[in-house]
# Entry
Amino acid sequence: MSQNLNNSFIDAAKVAIIGRPNVGKSTLFNILTDSRKAVVKNLAGVTRDIMLEPVNIWGKSFDLIDTGGVTEASDIFSKMIKEQVVEFLFTVDFIVAVMDGRAGLLPEDRDIIKIAKQTGKPMLLVVNKVDSPHEADLMNAEFHEFGLDVVSTSFEQRRGVSDVLEWIVKMVPEAPKTMVEGMRIAMVGKPNVGKSSLCNCLLGMNRMMVSDIAGTTVDSVDSPLEFNDKKYVLVDTAGLRRQSKREEDIEIISAFKSQETIRRANIVLLVVDGTIGPTEQDAKIMQSILDDHKGVILVANKSDLGHAEFNNYKQRFLAQVAETFHFFIDVPVVFTSALKNNGMGDLFKEIESVTDKINCKIPTSDLNDFFFDVIRKAPAPVWGTTNVKFYYLTQTYQKPPAFIAFANHPDGVTNSYRRFLIKNIKQKFNLQGTPIRIFCMKARGAGKSDDARR
# Structure
């Protein structure tokens, strides 16, 4: 990893929510953060990654963290979740352990408390699903054996949540540093192309769960970091498969959350398996990114395997890119290997370059000098029997750059002519690889004399 790549996590107090699967951890997370960020479903194991969201309430600020359900089950996901949560708990400041009052105290609950106590962090025990206040004392009795503060709640009824908040606010210190802001970078792509491994490589910690099973990442996970003194927020998302293959409800929810993440991002990293190359599904994902007008970088991951398998690996891959993304042929490409920790510096250099391009603001005088020079190079489009006449070009406040061309007959500006203008704008102002838009509007008072002549 480049020496200039440093983790820059939030200095606010970190409060982690832990517990067995399906005890209500994600519901509590959503209530306290006033969001639907954590996936909530009545199915064990839905939360598989660590979710982090800043909270500011009652004059206190802290980071609330939702964790995967801890269980002793022997399946691979359960083992990975347990290892991930145990490792992560040593990095937090306070712990809220959620348990199921209806199920009572189970052996796995005792294991969770034992693990949490080893960290030495202050902890609150929350007994959820206590639907009747009259049953609270009876249902809570066995949970007092740990010598912890115990709060009975019913998240579905929003009862007892204020008691949980009161404990957190009492524990959190005053005036923590505020959350780091930065360009939002979304990591998207098909399942099992190495997105989470790439995120872990960039972050330098085991934040995302990694396995060779497609669909490991369900939620979108935000992770702040720095590179060359510039701040970013890296977001890993669930793998996007074709609609027909999204058979499970979890995949449908995950695909929606991934698309929502793309819409909120500034830059999107479309990760593909370098040994396979971009596919039809990748083309659809790319089109979705362009439809949302986002800066984008194509990341060819697993390039170490690609070089081992093909003598002309890079040329082969770039030829596939030209064919698959024929509608966006100048997309920037970076070759990486998360396994070998290769290409991370190149990736961030490209991120910096794309960041500069999407923030580009061209002086109006320079823009119009260029514009009138360019429109002389090609025949003007025709609307009916009248040539389209352009008056001026202006840049909007959108990012990546977008422009409005004012003309007498904007409906006569064809898509091919727009592509001609975009190509020349990219060449003139070094905006290759940037998804540029040109809108055409009718200039005030324009076209009247032309209509009269017709």
Remarks:
- Residues 183-358 form a domain with the Rossmann fold fold (CATH 3.40.50.300).
- The chain is about 35% helix and 20% strand.
- The first strand starts at residue 5 and ends at 7.
- The chain has three domains: 10-171, 183-358, 364-453.
